[in-house]
Every structure is written in C-alpha cells, then in structure tokens.
Amino acid sequence: MKTFCILVAGAVLFVFPYFNGAQSRSRSALQTPPPAKSLFTQSAVQLLGREFPDPNVSYLLLDAHTGFVLASRWEEPQKPIPLGSLVKPFTALAYAAEHGYRFPEHVCHGEASGCWQLRPHGSLDLVSAMAYSCNSYFRALAATLTGGQVHPVAEQFGFEAPDANLTGPPLMGLGSDWRISPLRMAHAYLELIRRREQPSVREILTGMAQAASYGTGAAVDRVLKHSDALVKTGTAPCTHPRSAPGDGFTIAFLPADQPEILLMVRVHSVPGSVAAATAASMLARLAP
Fold first, then answer.
1. Rounded mean pLDDT of 244-269?
2. Of 17, 55, 279, 285, which sits most exposed with the smallest number of CB within 10 A?
3. Rounded CA gap, 146 and 164, in Å?
4. How high is the pLDDT of residue 40?
C-alpha cells in the first residue's frame, strides 16, 4: 500500500455536513468540524487560495469520511448546473438496475459513433468505457433509459433527478437539460465510495482508477508521487457570465484504496481532461 500524507498547519473556515442519500435533501445546517479537521481546513484554504488564485478555477475539497467541505471557492455550489460526464456513473447504475446488473460490450468507432474522440476507442466494457469516458458507449446505455428510470438512483444518491420524460444523450451528460448541484454531486460520489462493494459500483470505481492511470484523468497519476487516485472527468456547457464553449470538470479521490479527500474542480473554457491537470496540481500540493 502506498503512503499518503497531508500538509497540516492552521485552523477553520466553515463547512457543509454530509448526509447520504435522501437525507441530504432535507438537512443543510452548517456545522463546525472537529479540531483535527479544523487544522487541515485552514491549511487547505490558505494553500489553495495562495497557489491557485485563477478566478477561472472553482473547487470544492471534502473530507471523504464525513463529507465536510474543508475548502471551497465555488460561487453557489448548491445551484444546479450541467455537469457533463460526471453523471455517467449514475447512468450506468440506472442501466444496471434495468438490465440485471449486466453491461454490454460495445465497439466505439470514434466520432462516427458519437464519441468525443475522433479516433475509435474500439471494443469496450464498462470499466474501459469509464476510464475513457467514452460517449459512444454511454450513448448506447442512455438510449435504453428514460429520466424516470434514473429517478431511483438520483434518490438513493441524493442529487437532482432528470425530467421523467427525458431520453437519450442528456441522460449521459450531453447538453443542459439535466442540471445537478455541484455540492450534491460531490456527496453522491462519496456515496459511491460507501457502496463500493455493491454490484456495478466496483466496476465503476475500477474504471475511475484506470481513468487516473491511462484515461481522461491520467494527468492526476502522472503528477502524484506517493499515491494513486480515482478520477472522473467531464465537459459541460458553460454557465459563467463570460460565456465559453464549455467548462471542464474533474472529481478525484485520494488515495484510491482508502480515500481521505475528494477534490471537485471546474475550469472555465477547457475540456475535462485539462481540468484534470489543474486538479492534479492541487492534489500534488495537498498530498506531496
């Protein structure tokens, strides 16, 4: 097992509590973390604010055990926005529930089959499709679903459900029809970790580990010296006042085997793979 260390020096800002599943819809009072978390909180706040001042970068840093927000620079993190491919793990879980927890093999022909990548990804299972965030694979899953079939997953993981009549590509993160609070999405990923031994979740997390190793989040593992990560990237329509073609998102857990922190990053006017490089730089400073 690789070692994991965190820089500590200081004391606290404010935090949001974590409640899994539907509880998160009804409880939102701010709480103060225990003293040990307070120490890391100020350290993280000061470090990220000092070394990553770019206003084009938004971030949420959460304790992976409690869901406390340790550091934040994200205007209205509870306001629903398009989150792109960050929804794909939950699309997969909705598909699994409708298909006996079995996933298809699929051949991606690149742009010709609706993928974001011009070149084909080739033959894929769920793990490799998650690693590459293959739009062709997830288009095939979403084509069999309605928003109503996604509702139970959204309820279980505590985030905004799509319209019940929504179908097709919006259910795998394309476009602006399905909007989710960034904070709720971060907590939904924490719930994935809590359910890591459940059917299909194991494959999703394995895909996120491979994304960090060789897929769309490979910038993260390239930068980290002492730990591996779990990573999911996404690109979504821009919601900034200064409009751009799209914004890049990354969610990363560190370390991969027993996550201690979750970092969610949004970078204005770049794709998700580029946002992963920004997340990697942040994680490298938090866990040198």
1. 95
2. 55
3. 6
4. 65
The strand ranges marked E within 178-219 are: 179-180
Sheet with 230-236: strands ordered across: 69-73, 57-63, 261-268, 247-254, 230-236
Residue 53 CB neighbour total at 10 angstroms: 9
Contacts of residue 158, defined as CB under 8 A and 6 or more positions apart, other chains included, come to 19, 20, 21, 22, 23, 24, 25, 184, 187, 188, 191
- Single out the residue of 76, 65, 61, 80 nearest to residue 15, CA to CA: 61
| Region class of 114: left (phi > 0), else alpha (psi between -120 and 50), else beta | left
* pLDDT at res. 116: 95
Within the chain, strands assigned E span 57-63, 69-73, 81-82, 106-108, 122-124, 179-180, 230-236, 247-254, 261-268
Q: Is the pLDDT of residue 43 over 90?
A: no
pLDDT, residue 134, reads: 98
Instruction: Determine the Cα–Cα distance for residues 64 and 42; give it in Å rounded to an integer.
Output: 17
**How far apart, in whole angstroms, are the C-alpha atoms of residue 250 and residue 283?**
12
Crossing angle of the two packed helices 272-286 and 35-51, in degrees rounded to 10: 120
Entry pTM: 0.87
Q: Which pLDDT score is estimated for 34?
A: 57
Report yes or no: 45 and 13 within 8 Å, Cβ to Cβ: yes
Residue 45 pLDDT grade (very low, low, confident, very high; cuts 50, 70, 90): confident
